């Protein structure tokens, strides 16, 4: 830990204040048993609705495994294709459609799947596929024509 001042309750570094009765005001978790542990800037995985997210991802992944091949998506689908699919499902959902006509699955399942795979591709720097907008003459016109 360091040689600086520590919290009087949990003994972790502090800014000169002491912990309150209900636990540490610095975010140092204190269990009901009194045990303490510093989070060390950990992501709050306890806030994720795992059941809904993993079930939705698994349903779409199963459809893809049958239609293409298991783990086909992990080879690196172009990001622009994933975004296009995500938008198609989003717009279909916004129009009031609940289920995709091809898979029979919820559009929201497909939205989640596309967002997760897009994040995977970005994290692992897989195929990008984005392209710049082509030049258009009319955008340069200043004469009002």
What distance separates the N and C termini? 69 Å
Biggest sheet statistics:
none
Radius of gyration of CA atoms, rounded to a whole number: 24 Å
> Averaging pLDDT over every residue, what do you get?
81
Features:
single chain, 0% strand, 145 residues, 2 domains, 3 helices, mainly alpha, extended
Short description:
By secondary structure, this protein is mostly helical. 35% of the residues lie in helices and 0% in strands. α1 packs across α3 (107-123) and α2 packs antiparallel against α3 (107-123).
Description of the structure:
The protein is mainly α and 145 residues long. The protein has helices spanning 50-67, 79-94, 107-123. The protein has two domains: 1-42, no CATH class; 47-123, no CATH class. The longest helix has 18 residues, at 50-67. It is extended, with a radius of gyration of 24 Å.
Q: How are the SSEs ordered, and which strands pair?
A:
Layout: H1 50-67, H2 79-94, H3 107-123
Helix pairs in contact: 1-3, 2-3
